[in-house]
Amino acid sequence: MSSGPETRFIASVHRHLPPEAEFHREKMANPYRGGTADSWYSGLKRDLWVEWKWVELPKRPDTLIDITAGKKPSLSVLQQQWICDRRTEGRSVWVIVGSKAGGMVFCDNAWSKAYRTDTYLAQSLGRGLVANMILDFCQ
After folding, report:
1. Res 105: pLDDT
2. Which pTM value belongs to this model?
């Protein structure tokens, strides 16, 4: 298993969730079809798909972070299409962008626009809060 910053961020959020026997989560990896979201969570009320991304925050507060363009991070065109198609079907798909400062949670299509670094910092949540959002949504 990869131990890059995105993987470590996901694990640090998952540490705040109940054990898998109590709250189901599954890593999605499909080598035959690109674009599928990274994780699937299944709760008592509903399920949730999450595409996780990691950013190294720029030093300047006015630098734009755009996850739909550029090299790092970026949602591929296939990922963007998969997210939009599933949302059109009525499924819940979030994009969570992690950094050393925490995670910015996009519960809608707001991930498609660029954000300033200072806005990202102001809207980032701690790992425990990100986990609580996932759990509360599903349970």
Report:
1. 97
2. 0.93
